[in-house]
Amino acid sequence: MDKKNKFLFLGAAGILLLVRSTPLFAGSGIFESYGIFSSVNQAGTSLLNQYYDMQATTANPDFNSNNFGTFDLTNSGNLLQIKGGEVKTYKNGLSDVFSATINYRVYETSIGPGSIAFTSLNLPFNSNLAAAGDQKWQSGGYSNNLLSSLSGNKNFTIEVFLTANSSDGTWYSNGGVGAPNYKATFSTVPEPSTAGLLILSIVGAMTLRRRRA
Known about the structure:
Helix content is about 15%, strand content about 45%. By secondary structure, it is of the alpha+beta class. The protein has one domain (about 30-210). Strands 1, 2, 4, 7, 8 and 9 form a six-stranded antiparallel beta sheet that branches. Strands 3, 5, 6, 10, 11 and 12 form a six-stranded mixed beta sheet that branches. The chain is elongated and about 55 Å long.
């Protein structure tokens, strides 16, 4: 190899080494995500601190397209809570992951979300996983009531996405292109109260008396 070609070869090798040391060849992202919910519906089905697969395929139930059932808003024993979530991230080279969140909102299905904003819950660092650079961000300690402020015989949607904030930007776990965010549904019923039933009974009895008269 002559001096000119040797110089060009060493120069190219140096450039390649420099390029490979930059964030262009680093990387980070989310490779698994889950939501954690507690529910006791009108039928008595109880699932407490249940993990739901979002960006994952495990023995857990899938969150997307899940129906939590029907909830009686007058029964204090019925509950639907978001307890938190879990995000598993990876990082390579110069990349780093700083934080993770699960974000949700609830809206009437037939109306849509409109201007309802997402509520964001922090998922703190939990542990380093077996593979180098893989980490888990997790919390199941929240008890946010998803039935709060709801009323009527209606159908509702829970919309969820998760994020990981990194040196490469914000990564989203939201179902992928063409399927924005994970969505599950549930229904509500306000069964008549005891007082309401008593009033209806009295009115019914009075109506029957009038007819007989």
